[in-house]
Amino acid sequence: MVGYVIRRLLLAVFVLWGVATVVFVIVRMVPADPALLIAGETATPQQLAELRHQMGLDLPLIVQYGRYLGDALVGNFGNSYVLSVPAMYLIGQALPNTALLAVLALLLALAVSFPLGLLAALRVNRFGDRAVTTGSLIVQALPGFWVGVVLLLVFSRTLKWLPSAGLTDVQSLILPTIVLALPFIAILTRLTRSGLLEVIGEGYIQTARAKGLPERTVIFPHAIRNAIIPIITVVGLEFGTLLGGAVITETVFSFPGIGRLLVSSIQVRDYNVVQACVVIIAAAFVIINLIVDLLYAYLDPRMRLAK
Amino acid sequence: MTFAPPTIALHAMQRARRARGAVTARIAVPLIVIGLLTVGAVIVPILYHYDPLHADLLARLKPPGATLSDGSTAILGTDQVGSDLFAQMMDGIRVSLIVGAFTLLIAGVIGVLLGLLAGYFGGWFDAVLMRIADIQLAFPSILLAILIASVLGQGVMNVIIVLSIANWVVFARVTRSQVMSLKGREYVEAARTLGASHFHLIFRTLLPGCIAPILVIATVEFGQVILAEAALSFLGVGVPLGTPSLGSTIASGTQYLATAWWISTLPGIALLILVLATGILGDALRDRLDPRLRSA
Questions:
Q1: Which residues are bridge partners to B74 per DSSP?
Q2: How many CB pairs under 8 A join A and B?
Q3: Please, which residues have CB within 8 angstroms of residue A222's CB and are 6 or more apart in sequence?
Q4: Are the beta carbons of A267 and B254 separated by less than 8 Å?
Q5: Which residues, listed in sequence order, are joined to residue B58 by a DSSP beta bridge?
Q6: A36 and B CB contact within 8 Å
Q7: Looking at chain A from residue 64 to 123, which residues have their Cβ under 8 Å from any Cβ of chain B?
Q8: A167 at B interface, C-beta within 8 A
Q9: Which residues are within 8 A (CB) of B99 and not within 5 positions of it... i.e. 6 or more apart?
Q10: How close, in Å, is residue A179 to chain B by CA atoms?
C-alpha cells in the first residue's frame, strides 16, 4: 500500500511538472510582446527595454523557465498585466465560486443519475430502461453553451423567474448548476446501469437470491456496494470534463469563476493570469484524481497490488 | 444443462434477429441524417446565393416564415444583419463537417501510428508516449484547445490543428491497447515465425485487427470534435469573423434573445441533431463491430 501511494504521488508530481512546462512553452509561443502589452503602444524603445529587463524577459529562455518553475512552486505566477495585482489573487477570488458550482453540479448529477440508473438496470430492455438510455444519449449530445442560452431565454428573459447573470444570490446558482451537471448526469446514469447489470450477473447475487432474500435486500446492500466502485473512478476521471465545462458555463452566465477569468484574460491577452488559471485547473484535476485513486485502493484491496 | 425446448430456442433466435435488425436501423438512420445534412450543407448556401459578408439591414431580425422585400420567404428567419438563417446554418454545418473530418483524419493518422508503434515495440518509446498522454489527459481537452487557440489565433485551419492536438491521445490509447491484446495471438506468432518484417507485422497483421475499435472511437469523437469547434467559436477563439459556424451564430444571437429568439436556438438544434446522429451511430457500430467494447 505504501509503495502504491508513493508511486501514485510521484506520478502526480510528474504530471504537474509536465503541465507547467507545456503551459510555459505555449505561452512563450505567443507572438505578442508582454512588455508592449503593459507599457502600451506609446512607450519608447528605451522604456520597453527597461520593462523587459525588470520582467526578466531579456534572460535566456532556460533561466526564465527555471525562475518560472520556482515561482510556480510557491504559487507566484506574476502580476496581471491589466489589473496590476498578483494573478493568484484573482484566482483566489474566483476559485471558491467555481468549486461551489462544481460541487453542486456533482451532487445534483449523483442525486439524479443514481435513481435513473437503478431504474434502468432493474427494468432492463423494458420501457423505463429504453427511456432512460435514449434520454441520456440525447443529453450527452446537447451543446452545453446552447442549453445555457436556451435556459436563459426561457427562465430569465421570458418567465423572469431567475436572474440571468453573475452570482448575487442562491437563485443565480440554479441555472449554471443544471447546465454543468447535464453531461455528468448522462455519463453517470449509463455507468450506474451497466455497473449494476454486470454485478447482478455475478454468482454471489444468485446465491443471495437462492437463499430466498427479498429482492430489495439483494439489490441494496449486495449489488450496489460493488457497483459503486467504478462510479467513483469515473467521477474522478470526468472531473476534468466538469472543470472544462465550467469554462463554458461560466462564460454563458457571466459567473465569476476561474473559467470566466480564463476566457476574459485570453481576450485581453493577460498571459500571466492565463498561465495561472490553466496550471491551477490542471492541478485541481490531478489532485482530485490522486484522491480518487487512493480512495479506490482503500475500497478495493485488489488495486493495491496491481501494477 | 439439457437442451432447451425448441420453442424457447426459436424465440431466442427471433429475438436475436430482431436485435440485429434494430442495430441495422440504428446504423442506417444516423447515416441518412448525416448524409442529408452533408448534401444540404453543400447545396443550400449555393441555392440561396449565401454570402456571409453581405448585409441587408432592411431584412434584419425577421421571424421564421417572414416574407422579405424581394418576395422570398425566410423559412427560419433572418439574423441581426439580415442574412437568411437557414442558409447561414447550413453553411455553419459545412464548417462543422469540414473541421470534424480533417481533425479526425489528422488526429486519427497520428494517434493510430503512434499507438501501433508503442504497442508493438513497447520499451522506452511506449513509456514516453504514455507519460505524454498522462500529462495531456491532466488538461480538460477544451482547456488545452482554448489555450492553443488563443496563441495560434482564429482560423479554420488553426481550429483543426488545435482539436487534432487535443484528440490524438484517444486514438493512440485505443490502438495501443488493441495491439497489446493482439500481439500474443497465434496468427501474429505464425506471421512472425514465417519471417514477416516489423513493417509487415504492424501494418498487415496487427492494423486490420485494430480497425473496428478505431472506427467506433472515430465516430464518437466526430461528434465531440464538432461540439468542441462550436464551443471554441462560441467563446470567440474558433473560426474568424465572416466564417459562419454554428457556435458563432449562437453567440451572436445571445444579444438578441429578447427580440429574436430564433438566432440562438435554431442553430443549436441543428448542432444537436448532427451530434446525436453521430452518437447513435457510434453506439450502434460498437454493438455491431465490437461487443466487448459495449458500454451500456
A1: B66
A2: 135
A3: A204, A205, A208
A4: no
A5: none
A6: no
A7: none
A8: no
A9: B156, B159, B160, B163, B225, B226, B229
A10: 14
Which of 226-245 (B) contact A at CB < 8 A? Answer: 227, 230-231, 234-237
Full DSSP string of A171-229: GGGHHHHHHHHHHHHHHHHHHHHHHHHHHHTSHHHHHHHHTT--HHHIIIIIIHHHHHH
Does the beta carbon of B141 lie under 8 angstroms from any beta carbon of chain A? yes
Q: Evaluate whether A85 touches A79 at the Cβ level (below 8 Å).
A: yes
Q: Which residues contact A167 (CB under 8 A, 6 or more apart)?
A: A97, A173, A255, A256
Q: How far is A16 from A275, CA to CA, in rounded Å?
A: 13
- Interface probe for B, chosen from A138, A142, A145 (most Cβ of B below 10 Å), is A145
Whether the CB-CB separation of B282 and B30 falls below 8 Å is answered with: no
Q: Which residues of chain A have a CB within 8 Å of the CB of B223?
A: 141
**What digits encode the pLDDT tens for the residues A285-300?**
888 888 887 877 777 6
Å from B200 to nearest chain A CA?
31
A15 to chain B, minimum CA–CA distance in Å? 5
**Contact by Cβ (8 Å): A148, B251:** no
Pairing of strands B73-74, B66-67: antiparallel
3-state secondary structure at position A143: coil
Q: Which three cell numbers stand for residue B278?
A: 453521430
What residues in chain B have per-residue pLDDT under 50? Answer: 1, 293-296
Exposed / middle / buried, residue B43 (Cβ in 10 Å: 0-12, 13-18, 19+): exposed
DSSP 3-state assignment of A54?
helix
Higher pLDDT, A260 or A83: A260
Question: DSSP string spanning A84-99?
Answer: -SBHHHHHHHHHHHHH
Confirm or reject contact between A135 and chain B (CB < 8 A): no
CA distances from A91 to A79, A86, A286 (A): 12, 9, 18
DSSP A255-294: --SHHHHHHHHHHTT-HHHHHHHHHHHHHHHHHHHHHHHH
Is residue A189 predicted with pLDDT exceeding 70? yes
pLDDT for A291 equals: 84
pLDDT at A307 over 50: no
The answer, yes or no, to whether residue A63 has pLDDT greater than 80, is: yes
DSSP per residue over A127-142, as a string?
Answer: HHHHHHHHHHHHHHHS
For chain A, say whether B180 makes contact (Cβ under 8 Å): no
d(C-alpha A258, C-alpha A61), whole Å: 28
Chain B interface, best mutation among A132, A146, A193, A243, by max B CB count within 10 A: A146
User: Please, what is the Cα angle at A161 between A158 and A163, to 5 degrees?
Assistant: 95
CB contact, 8 Å: A262 with chain B?
Answer: yes
pLDDT above 90 for A125:
no
Mutate to test the interface with A, among B15, B89, B141, B150 (most CBs of A within 10 A): B150
Residue A147: enclosing H or E segment and its boundaries?
helix A144-151
Predicted ipTM of the assembly: 0.81
A7 burial level (CB within 10 Å; 0-12, 13-18, 19+): exposed
Digit-coded pLDDT (tens) for A3-59 = 888 888 888 888 889 888 888 888 887 766 777 777 777 778 888 888 778 777 778
